[in-house]
Amino acid sequence: MPTQPTETAAATTGKIAEKAPAYSWYALSVLVLVYMLNFIDRNILSILANDIKADLGLTDADLGFLYGTAFGVFYALFGIPLGRLADSWHRVRLMTLGLALWSAMTAFSGFARNGLELAAARIGVGVGEASASPSAYSLLSDWFPKKMRGTALAIYSAGLYLGAGISLMLGGLIVEGWNNAYPGGGPLGLVGWQAAFMAVGVPGLLLALWVFTLREPARGAIEGLPEPKIERPFRGFATELFAVVPPFTLISALQRGKGPFLVNLAAAVVIAGLAWLIGTATGSYQQWGAIGIGYYAVFSWANSLRQRDYPAFRLIWGSPAFLYTILGYGMVAFASYSVSFWAAPYAERVLGASKSVLGFWIGGGGALGGFLGVIIGGRVSDWLRERNPGGRILVIMFGVLAPVVPLIFAFTTQDVALFYFLNFLISLFGSSALGAAAATTQDLVLPRMRGTATATFFLSTTLVGLALGPYMAGQVSTMTGSLSIGVLSMLVAAPIGTALLILAYRTVPTAERTLIERARAAGEPGI
Fold it and tell me: Is the peptide bond before 247 cis (omega within 30 degrees of 0)?
């Protein structure tokens, strides 16, 4: 088979590349912009939260649901089939389509007239954004050699913190400017928070055109493991979609036999019952119904993957190191997403800061802290990994523990300047874990499994972190009448995350047992 123009020499020689070509750095810069917009569109709800709460008559628990659960569950759910598609189809095209979808849905959020309409738009944003990181992680792993992968993924991940920070600055300026210019509502009757959604959504459609021009790299070539083009890539996507989206999950289970069908049905009944009980206790059926759908979907998908692709199942779900790593990092996300969302409403509501001022200091400080933390953390994780197979796990553990003290002081102080500084430290320390966690998951699987592994990794950051953290902080705030207590309750993640990461450190594969050997043991053909 002739070599494609974008393939490296490693594809034909079998040699592992030691350096990244200049084009890899250019492509990385474009993907950083995509990830920045990803988090601008995702996180702008934070600076708009108090206005939305007042206009639509919502509670803090409702806001946590909109920011975390409505977005996160469907982001995680569709990340699985889209991750599979990233493993088999043209990743640049997939990212282009996803970017166009989530940008359009962000703009549509500006027309929301009630919580239900806004929740529907947030679901659309989640589905579109689910295509981004599986595609990006897989692309970057084919643009950069393994020894540089932690750094590359950390640079890409910096877009998270830059985008989240910019969203607060832009949102604050747009809302105040719009409301000052149109006190009674502007064109189409839109108020400031609605105009802000539209202002950040439309530019994504233009960025999608730029992303479309990127060249697709040869899969696995840069590390001497070139893989042939997969025929009929959408067949695998459809299979994954049926395996994860209820009620098609029952059909998928029935196709595997009577036993898998009964197990799947029993799981659906048990999870639905638990969701109903917790919903009754909290009065939030939408939250726990969505969580139940997400957890049931993951159960269905994992059982389907076990039968359809046992080697991938073994290297992902059958790997203790993989599971402990993603769940341990999920605890970082649990607290980080809560602080990221609630910091702006807290500064406005409790400390009396204006949107434009808090947007600059929280957004700018969070962006700077996140950028520095994720870059430094990625570099340190690569340095430690060369000396210790579990070195990256130590960086993730730092990200769990280091933010604890600044978080306690931040949400108990009455000094707004100190709050801004402590928010910077929380972002700096918490962000250090992301590149290390992402690189660990990529190291533990074969090139053909990277998109699926990434989707699994984001299950922990969404169904554990994003879908639970912001909502639970909001629920505690609603119950106690104190947003401070709500955010501080997130500290429960620290001991849980530490225990999980100690287990990850102890189970990470050593140099004596290579990826190839583990793949052979899992039954991977052709290895």
Answer: yes
pLDDT digits (tens, 9 = 90+) for 84-140: 888 888 899 999 999 999 999 999 999 988 889 999 999 999 999 999 988 998 888
Of 248, 403, 266, nearest to 337 (Cα)? 403
Q: Which residues, 6+ apart, have CB-to-CB distance to 493 below 8 Å?
A: 331, 332, 334, 335, 400, 469
- Rounded distance between C-alpha atoms, residue 196 and residue 521, angstroms: 53
Token pair belonging to 502: 């100690």
Burial class (CB in 10 A: 0-12, 13-18, 19+), 287: buried
Sign of CA dihedral 362, 368, 374, 377: negative
pLDDT tens for each residue of 371-407? 889 889 988 988 998 888 888 999 999 999 999 999 9
Token pair for 326: 């993603």
Burial class (CB in 10 A: 0-12, 13-18, 19+), 394: middle
**Model confidence over 435-478: pLDDT tens digits?**
899 888 988 888 888 877 877 888 888 889 989 999 999 999 99
Place of tokens 């104190």: 482
